[in-house]
UniProtKB/TrEMBL annotation:
<dbReference type="Pfam" id="PF07883">
    <property type="entry name" value="Cupin_2"/>
</dbReference>
<dbReference type="InterPro" id="IPR047263">
    <property type="entry name" value="HNL-like_cupin"/>
</dbReference>
<dbReference type="InterPro" id="IPR014710">
    <property type="entry name" value="RmlC-like_jellyroll"/>
</dbReference>
<feature type="domain" description="Cupin type-2">
    <location>
        <begin position="56"/>
        <end position="115"/>
    </location>
</feature>
<protein>
    <submittedName>
        <fullName>Cupin domain protein</fullName>
    </submittedName>
</protein>
<dbReference type="InterPro" id="IPR011051">
    <property type="entry name" value="RmlC_Cupin_sf"/>
</dbReference>
<dbReference type="InterPro" id="IPR013096">
    <property type="entry name" value="Cupin_2"/>
</dbReference>
Length: 151
């Protein structure tokens, strides 16, 4: 699928520029939380005033580690796919394929990961749900063995 979309002779930067033209929000800079990702991701703040909203963009094959959004009350996260193809998976459940328009509501205290498909760039808006005493706990990586089972 990558060959159908991307020319093999172009650089990652050129691929990034092409993908940027397909989405409505800026890709941003290299993700400062990169230590919790396999592969390259980018982060761009969309809004930080009332509700924190960020665009997170993943290069093909990039995914974040398993993690949990903790909260004493409320909290969690909402993901809205804005481009490409990716996955969301809760621990112990089957992965959910995400394409533009897919909305995922993640309650607090749910172990999960999200990221690009092996063959596509992927971008989602990440909306932080207001809560009391919120934090994110980063856990183990999503293994290549598990990730490579994706379609």
């Amino acid at each position: 699928m990558v060959k159908e979309i991307w020319n093999e002779n172009i650089s990652r930067e050129e691929e990034r520029d092409i993908f940027q033209k397909k989405i409505s929000f800026p890709i941003g800079e290299k993700n400062p939380y990169g230590e919790f990702f396999i592969g390259q991701s980018y982060l761009a703040p969309v809004s930080t005033d009332q509700v924190p909203v960020f665009n997170v963009t993943f290069e093909p094959g990039c995914r974040n580690n398993w993690h949990v959004h903790h909260a004493k009350n409320g909290g969690g996260q909402i993901l809205i796919c804005i481009g490409g193809r990716g996955y969301y998976q809760e621990f112990g459940k089957e992965p959910v394929e995400m394409s533009p328009g897919t909305v995922i509501n993640i309650p607090a205290e749910v172990k999960h990961w999200h990221g690009a498909s092996p063959s596509s760039w992927f971008a989602h808006l990440a909306i932080e749900v207001e809560g009391e005493e919120t934090s994110t706990e980063w856990l183990e990586v999503v293994t290549d063995e598990d990730y490579n089972k994706l379609k």
